[in-house]
Each structure stands twice: as C-alpha cells, then as structure tokens.
Amino acid sequence: MYMKTLSIVLLSSMFILNINGQTLKNEWVEVNNEGCTVLDPYYRVGVSETWDGKCINGKANGYGKLTKYVNEVIESIYEGDYKDGIREGKGKFTHIGENSVLECTFHNGQAIGNGVYEMKGGNRYVGEIVNYRSHGNGILYLANGAKFEGFFVSDKMYTGKFTNYDSKVIYFQKRNIVEKIKEKASNYKPKIGIKLTEFFDVNWKRCKRENASFYRLITYKSPNKPDGIVKDYYIYGQIQSEFTAVYLDYDDEDKNFHEGVATWYYESGKILETKNYINNKLNGNNKFFHENGQPSQVTNYSFGIIDGKDTRWYKTGKLKIIGNYKNGKLLNNKYIEYDENGLGAIVYNEKFIANKSNWEVTFEGNKSEVTVDNRLNLLVSSDKIAARFNYISLNQVSNFSVETSVKKKNGEDINGYGLLFGFKDWDNYYEFLISGNGSYKIRSRFEGIIMDIAEWTPSDYIYKGNDENLLKVMKFDDTFIFSINGHIVERKESSSLRGNNYGIIVSGKGEYVLGNITIKEFVSNTELANRKPETESIDNKEWKGNGTGFFIDRNGYLATNYHVVGDANVIDVEFVKNGEKKNFIAKVIQTDKQNDLAIIKITDDSFVSFNKLPYNFKTNITDVGSDVFALGYPMALTVMGTEIKFTDGKISSKTGYQGDITTYQTTTPIQPGNSGGPLFDFDGNIIAINSAILRPDVADNVSYSIKSSYLKNLVDVLDYKISLPNDQTIVGKTLIEKIKILSDYVVLIRVR
Length: 752
Prior knowledge:
The chain is mainly beta. The protein has 5 helices and 57 strands.
C-alpha cells in the first residue's frame, strides 16, 4: 500500500463536512423503559437516546424516529429504518447543533451510498457517502453560487472541476490546481467474492505481473468494498502492508477510505510504520520505526489533527525532537531539538500562514502577502527602505542562531536586501544584506548611531541574480558569526540585541521573497527541562487542584475520582520510579460520574511499562472492623507538600452516607487531595477508592471510599482489555515494607 503524505494544504474555497468529531465506539443503548436497544456506532459518555417505533425481541425494528441527547440536550434525530436494532435502509439524519441534514442509505449503522447533504450556511452536497462523509463522486453546491464537480476524499475536494461564483473555472487533480485533468480510469472491474491477486509497479499503478514491484491479495464483497484485511507484498513475497478499508479505489491509493489499524513493513520484515484510522482520519499515536527496530517518530492525532506530542529519535535511540501540539498548532511555535551528543536547542520556525495577520499589510504603497507554500512576498513600489518583521521571543543571554532564505524575484536592489534582526525601532537594529551582483554588507544602529561591521564586500558564496540565498547569524559566547549559504564570511565581537523583531529589509523597487525564519536558542539540558514547550513544567501556583490515583494496569492506565479529573484540560501525573521522580501527561479514557470514578491513561511516549504491579485487586466485601490504610497526596499544592502520606483506620460500615451501598465508611483520616487514592487492607489488597469525608463539624474521623467492584465494572466497559493486578508477593511483608513498595504505584495528580 502506498503511504499517504500527511501535510496537505487546503484551499480556502474548500468546504469540510464535520458531522461526527467524536470517538467512534459501537455501543448497544437502551432507548425506552421496556429495554429496547439500538446500536450506536458513535456512542460516547453522556449520551442518552429515545426511540419512537416498534421493538421486536428487545431491538428497534422498522421505521421510526431515534432522538439522541447529550447532557439532556437534543444533538441529533434519525428518521428511518432499523433492522434488529441497527440502521438499515433509507433514512434522514438531522444534526441539530450543526444545522445539517443528511438523507442517505444506511448499512450496518453507517451512512453509505448515494445521498444528499444539506449543510449549515446553505451549502449542499449530492453524491456518494462513506461513513457519513462525502467520499467518492459528487457535486458540492456552495451558497455563493460556486460548485465543485468531481471526486471527494473524506469531505475534501480531490479531483474535478471547480466553477467559481464569477464563472471562472479551476481544475483540480489530486488537490493540486492543473490546466487540464489528465488522469484516466483503468476500467478495472474485479470479480466479486473470490480471492484475487493484483499487481502494481513501483509507483503503485496497476500493471502486468512481469512489471510488478508489489502484489496484493484481496477479496471484494462488492465494487470497491474489500472483505476483511487487505495484504500487500513485495514481489518476492515479503509482506509490505496490511490494513482494513471501507472503500478501496482501483486506480488511486490516496482515494482509499481507511478504518482501523494500518501497518507498513520494511523489505526486511521489520515494522516501518503503524497508523490508526477512525473514519479515514488518523487518531491516536502514529508510529514510525528505524529498520533496526528503534522508534523513529511517534505523533499523536485526534481525528486527523495533530494533538499532543510529536517525538522523534535517532537510530541510536537518542532523542532528536520533542514538540507539543494543541488542535493542530505547535505550542508557542517552538520545539526542542537535540543533536546525537545530547546538545539541545529550542527551535522556532516562523509559520507565515498561521501568522498572516502579522505579516500581510499594505504600507506606503508597498504590499506584503503570504503565499500558499508558506513564504512571504514583499512588493516594493519605490526606492525607499521597506521592511516586514514580526516579534519572536529569544533569550539573548543564551547562544543562538537566526537563519533565513531571501530572494529577489525582480527589480533593482539599490542598497541591497536581506535579514533584519534584533529590531527594536529604526534607531536600534541589525541588518545583514546582499546584492544582486554578489556582495554583502553588515551593519547595526545603536541609539541612531550607525556601526559598520562589514562594508560592501564581494563574495563567491553568494548566488547572483535572482537566485535564493541562505543568510545565517550565530552568537556563541561573545562572538557573532555571519554565514552565506553555509560559508562563514565574517566574525565580530557580539553585543546585545535591542529588540526581538526579525524579518526582511530591502531597498529598491521590485518583488522580494522571504522564504523562512528559523531561530535556535542553545541552552543546557537543565534549562531545557525547565523550559519545555509543554505543560510538564507548570508551577504549582498554576495548577487548579490535585488528587491521587493509582495504577490498575502496567501499561499506564490509572484509576482516580471523577471529581478530580472530570473538568480538567490538562492532567499531570507524578510518581517515583527507580528512585527518580517522573512526570507524565495523561488523558481521561472512561468515566462513571454517578459513582465518582474515572480511568485515565498516560499518553507520553517516554513512559515505560512496568514489569508487573505488585499488589492484588480485591472485589469481595471487606468485613467491618478490618484494618485498612490509605496512601495519597493531601493538600499537595498548598501546605502538606508532594511527599506521599500514609494514614490508617478501620472499616466502620459496609455502607456509606445515608446507607449508600457503593461505599465503605472508615475511620481512616483523609483530606482534600487524597481523593482518587487507594484504600488497602493490611495484606496489601486494594479494596476501595477514597472519595469523600464528612465535615468535622458534623462528625470526626468519618471518610467514605468507593468499593473496588464498581471500579471493576468501569474497567469492563473499556475497549482496551485491562488485566487488573493480581499479585500476592507482598502479603507476608511488614507494613513498613508494604508501604515502601506500594508508594511507587500511587501517583500525585495535578489538574488545570
């Protein structure tokens, strides 16, 4: 299988459908008081549904209306046919929040086939639908009178004809603008229902056996619909990839509609890459590997958008790059880069497209505009000095480098063009200029006084005329180093930059291009740890609260209270491993609000699984009078500090507040911050989860802990199969020894 590229620039005229930005989860849901159920392929926590129609053998059947609520507010209405609790046949799906209506055929709960999509804002799609998304041949009618006719891939225009509202016609081929569409279908029509072998050349085009570099084993259950796993092989027999797809195009691999896990392999048989798709969108960790088995890159996606960490490694296993993303944007536009010796740098790459409002402007008859390939064009109408720049934070005490590519497309550069850096105002800045005839000049202004670092000097390193040149300034200790296209041209004693604006400066009528701005700040590993462009280094004052949690699976799943993490945007988990304090980011996986329980999972790729969890998970009821103890982090952000705390007591009652059967009442002293922590019996078995206390002015030493059986119920509904801890090795140890061992598996949770 051909590996898709992940970076695609979408034109602003494209309309993207967004009916289901939610976690895919098949769930049978009760829809009335009589136990009638339906299968919801997009179920999530907080959803309830009602069915107005017939119910046969406990399943919705025939024509009816299903109304879906999220937090008791109507989200969507489906009117159509059900068969044995599953959408099957024609139906109409109305999404209230998005003001959209889809009329389509449904199969096995999914919208698939020809349909009509009426969208918010007056746009309308008529054509093929796959899993509620426009995928295949169709026509998109825009409210302004424009339309696109052609092939769509996951709601995006792919190949076809776009007619603008002014009747101007643009042709697209594989998302690129072309003068004429040249691709032709192969007219391949495979036999249905039998196992086939298909052959492909090195570019993944269908070919004869003798010209093949790859072959595919596949069975089609209907046109373009593969049955089961699709397996591709190198021509000599080694597996190349395996994947599942809802739609498989006969001529273009980029038109496929993926669902589930896809894996690619090196010719050696080692794994090259794994991806997880939900509705043809990347979701979860996308992993690359070096051929020696070491991870190469792990990037987290949330429904097609990078969200979370992007981590990369050298073949040796040493860290190369760490970046942190939120909703597709690199936090602070900075990431950390390491060389193979461990020297680190904080890197800033200017994104002109993302910062359009800062770069695009018309001034004094001049104009700057951002191009679709993330460059800045500066059109200058006079011979006066013109410049465009942006503020980029830089700690000037550190060693650093500033790099940019500049190009003169046309015109006369009377006094040169190039890099403007350290700009505060027109009395305080540096400029590093080149000219079209192959000379460079470097100078600064300090409080209006010009200081020449280098007068106009010819250099063979400059590409003359209209070619692009790479200019770089480095500061190491007390020296400025200036280079052109990788060659050092000047060294000068450094001085402080007066400002943090960086950009392009030109003199002369014409058109100039600023290709990029990359700033690297070289700092020590200690300082890097304190300045990571992510949430791990947030000070206690910035956290909104804390609780306790504990591991229930060796692969990073933890239990805590819902009230600890339920409203959190960021969750930090801290614990001690091998004598060293560790911090990791986690996310909520499953919740039970009614019983105040939550399961979270560490998402950091640097987390290493435990060999085992050295304790037991006990669900049998513990007798009144039994000795118990708690471990946790009470008031960790304020007065009591982040060292783990031990308290003990006895089971007072098998029921909790006002006879609540889900909890124990105990005499174990717990405080705010203990919430979510484990309650152990004296054999070291987890019997409950600490949750609440009775106010001291009502009664002393009364605390409540949720019975472990309710946590097991929550674990059982997870998609991921958790093997709850079942180890008895600490039973015979002293209490002191037990506490030492168990403390490493009880975590401090910070939230904000």
